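Example: Thymidylate synthase (FAD).
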Amino acid sequence: MRVKISGFNFDKDYSENYKTPETICAAYARISRSEKSIEKLREESAKDIENARRSNEKIVFQLGHSSIAEHAVFNFDLVDISRFSIEYIQHHRLASFTEKSQRYVNMKNGFLIPEELKDDKDLEKEYIDFNREAFSLYEESFEFLNRTEDKQTSSEDSRYFLPLSTLTQCGMTVNGRTLEYMISRLKSQNIKELTKVGEELERESVKLAPSIIKYTKGKEKFKNNENMVEYELKGDNVKILNFTKNFSDLFIKTYLFHTDGERLTKKSLDKDFKENIIDKIFENLESYDKPPREFEIADYTFRIICSSSCFAQIKRHRIATLITQGYSLKSKPVIPATLKGTKFEKELLRLQKESYLLAKKLYKKNPLLYNYAVLNATKRCLILKMNGRELYHFVRLRSDKHAQWEIRNISDRIEKILKEKEPIMFKYLSGKDRYKNVK
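Written out as structure tokens, the predicted fold is:
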């Protein structure tokens, strides 16, 4: 494991004095209560770093204005950390992540052996043997698909054999306030890898910016109590649970309230009138443009069943409410169409059963440990709530022809449901490759 600060923001005009984001935080904190110019405040802060730190501690921690810490931005290299831990880290919304993609890169850098297994040699050996078998099948299926499919398909379909113990790397950009919260959450977990990541993030950031990274103690309330699921997941992979009714009426009235200064009314609106406004809004919007903010007035809630591999993509849509259960290792795994009818279909079904047996033993030792035995093919159930604006972004990206097949299937199903519920509001909803055809 390597956790390293690779970059951070600092005052470029005074960087020769002391390179730290603390001076920017201190200067900006004083803006609201000083008549001095920003330039003067920055100069004073940069010339007296100790006073800047005392000012930060008073404003952020004594007065409780934690938003000041958001002016500090850190870039981290996270290297040789398991997919399970990266998944936990990426749970935090107000940060940016770019992870090594198993869809494009052949994974050869091995798997994590949890420290918790060191005192149980039999279980440790069973765990290592399972991981070696999973990686062997991954490599074998990759070579098979490389002969029958293109290279990208080989990577994205063979990865269903990989476990969450697989080591990966990730670049993370995060502000000081979110970083402090993240450290506290990581240090609260009963898993040594997670606590070690938290400790390393703390060590790297505190030595650079001690006045804004302070409340990092683990808390009982932050402990992850997500249990392994013991029921089998069946049925549609996408089901709508709840939605804003009369979205088109609500949207048009809100839009006119904003643009034309009209009073909100309860009267019903004519279908042609509404459609004409939607047509005009989208007339000049390209596939990369966001629809107006008024689309956020409606929410749609879905129950989704997907593989761990697919969930890794869904969780990147952070302007959403995402509630997950633990993984259901009793369920049949998601099997790529390219592997069906081949020996690898049987191998994946067999490996899933081995995964379940190992996971139960790991769970008994420590409830969170079972996650390391979860395969990318393993299913989980989640509840996803998005507003109308974010759904446009989601479908444009995930229903595009270049999207990975499993998340594209889910996105296509969401697109179909939305167009049935609100044909006017989602008239222009499509993958970005089809957008010109629906305009």
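Strands lie at 2-8, 73-82, 95-99, 167-175, 238-243, 299-307, 321-328, 379-387.
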